[in-house]
Amino acid sequence: MDPSRSPHENKHVLPPGPRGMPLLGNLVRFRRDQLGFLLRLQRTYGRMATILIGKTTVVLLFRPEHVRYVLTDNPRNFTNREVAGGLIFGNLLVLSLLARSLTEKATRGLHDFVGDGLLTTDGEFHDRHRRLLQGALARRRVEQHAGLIVRYTQEAVERWRGGTEMDLAHEMQAVILRITAKILFDQDVRDSALGSIIDAVLAQPVGLFEGLLNLRVALPFTPYRRRMALLRQADAVIYAVIDRRRAENRDVGDVLSILLQSGTETTVDALTRREVRDELVSLLAAGHETTTNTLAWTFYLLARNPAVLGHLISEIQQVLGGRDPRVSDMVNLRYLDWVVKESMRLYPSAWTQGRQAIAAFDLDGYHFPAGTFLMFSQWVLHRLPDVWGDPDVFRPERWDPAHGEKAQRWAYFPFGDGPRSCLGMPLANLEVRLVLVTILQRLIPILVPGHPVEPFPLITLRPKHGLWIRFKPASTVVPAPVTGASDPSPISACPYQERLTTGREMGFG
Questions:
Q1: CB within 8 Å of 255: residues ≥ 6 apart
Q2: What is the DSSP letter of 360?
Q3: Where do runs of H (alpha helix) occur along 114-188?
Q4: Closest CA to 457 of 90, 54, 79
Q5: How far is CA 159 from CA 75, 88, 154, 505, in A?
């Protein structure tokens, strides 16, 4: 709380916000441009803003200390379960499904897919599963898969050497899905039945009206029936893997081994067959999507900024000398680390989070009743002008501890924070760095002219039209010398910058 304000100042009065339309509130403006709408709210109202989605009030928090208060200082008072459905099925549901009656319907749709996993649960159930999975996704265990990550990436590179145009976002998804499935349950899904089924399931998202109205029409050719048929096929394969591995009773180094080592179904701490399935599917769905997006946006930024790309290639050559990357090399790839962090600042795959207050609370001079819906966005906080110098500029050097900026911890949280922070962070960080290095040792991305690149805010921030590139051999590029902090003539990386400064009035007041 701001100490300059009384704890009861503005009691029962919500923060100001834009005018809304009858019945719809601010839904139309939000739907028109979700990312730009949130940025404009912060620039207009400052620390907090209140909007209406239908008749549901949502308070938007825009300060790092707000994030700390909710995620770290008082996490038990803010539940994730009520908003999980909206956050998973994104594309306007991020806010519109915060309304309780609609969220409950969407959450049922979410359970059709991932069940009761870490993404959708709270309380003791969530804590128990998180404790178990912490061991499975610990850094020491994850690093054992470094060779696998490099090998699968190299196999993909061999297919890309022809220089043909491709949607790199789609290609990255295939690579990361293959890596993730192997690490989770020791299955190579490339060219397998399970791989094609999973790909088909991910291509059948819950539509807006299906999620809002809970339209579960099982007639032929309906999206719901197609998705349920695919889920049954996927479940049959996954349950067969679980049953076979439980019968073998051996640790092969994957996450499934840890889940099955929780005990037998007669012990208190054992996971049931269904619980094991739900956690595997949750990790598969969430883990590969976020890493895929981070890699796609990083390649986009590198392709747009040849100076940064040249510095990075030079560092890779100096540190590795042409050999395959290892975990021990990561500490010496300092510029790589800055590039990845800056990419996740500008294009955080998890671009927003929501919570609902269990009990009333006071924050920043306002008193909020129990049940208040809250939202805070990495997209916005990662661009706060008073925290980040030139916030819309891609400048990896800002992460140089010797010469860079001192960013507040809660102004940068691409993996969340507090007791619900992303368990897959060690794996995601390792995957992104190893995949980037392995590709850039051999190939350089070139953007294909004429293909638009636009962030699409669903549950994760993905390129709306894909990322069309062609590769050329890395040997054709003359790397720039690495001299520590450099001036790579940074570019604007925010597609909303011009719209925010010259766009028409959006009705804020």
A1: 133, 136, 137, 183, 184, 185, 280, 283
A2: -
A3: 123-136, 139-142, 146-160, 168-185
A4: 90
A5: 46, 33, 9, 49
Dihedral sign (CA 308, 151, 176, 262): negative
**Which DSSP symbol is given to 370?**
T
Q: How far is CA 461 from the centre of its chain?
A: 7
Token pair recorded at residue 180: 């993730």
Q: Which residues pair with 471 in a beta bridge?
A: 445
List the one residue out of 197, 191, 187, 435 whose CA is nearest residue 293.
Answer: 435
pLDDT tens digits for range 139-163: 888 899 999 999 999 999 999 987 8
* Domain map (residue ranges) of the chain: 27-502
Q: How far is CA 292 from CA 53, 181, 295, 463, in A?
A: 31, 14, 5, 10
The pair of three-digit structure tokens given for residue 404, joined into one six-digit string: 């860079």
pLDDT digit string, tens, across residues 115-139: 666 666 666 776 777 777 777 778 8
Torsion of the alpha carbons at 108, 110, 115 and 120, rounded to the nearest 10: -100
Asked if residue 380 lies in contact with residue 38, where contact means CB atoms within 8 angstroms, the answer is yes
Among 6, 11, 4, 44, which Cα is nearest to 507's? 44
CATH architecture label of 27-502: Orthogonal Bundle (1.10)
Alpha-carbon distance values, 307 to 175, 204, 486 (Å): 27, 39, 10
> Who wins on pLDDT, 217 or 416?
416
Q: Tell me how many degrees the CA angle 231-235-238 measures, rounded to the nearest 5.
A: 140
Report which of 471, 486, 443, 445 is spatially closest to residue 335, judged by C-alpha positions.
486
Maximum CA extent, the chain: 66
Q: How far apart are CA 342 and CA 394, in angstroms?
A: 7
Tokens 């996993």 identify what position?
117
List the beta bridge partners of residue 469.
166, 447
Residues facing residue 373 across a β-bridge: 58, 356
Q: What is the DSSP string of 393-432?
A: B--GGGG-TTTS----GGG--TT--GGGS-TTHHHHHHHH
Separation CA 137–CA 183 (nearest Å): 10
**Among 126-140, 297-311, 350-364, 435-449, the least confident range:** 126-140
What single-letter DSSP state applies at residue 15? P
Q: How far apart, in whole angstroms, are the C-alpha atoms of residue 70 and residue 87?
A: 17
Element (H, E) at 106: helix 100-113
Query: Which tokens in the block code for residue 220?
Result: 């032929």
Query: Is the distance from CB of 9 to CB of 365 less than 8 angstroms?
Result: yes
pTM for this predicted structure: 0.84
- 3-state SS of 218-279 is CCCCCHHHHHHHHHHHHHHHHHHHHHHHHHHCCCCCCHHHHHHCCCCCCCCCCCCHHHHHHH
> β-pairing, 56-61 with 166-167?
unpaired
3-state secondary structure string, 47-103?
CEEEEEECCEEEEEECCHHHHHHHHHHCHHHEECHHHHHHHHCCCCHHHHCCCHHHH
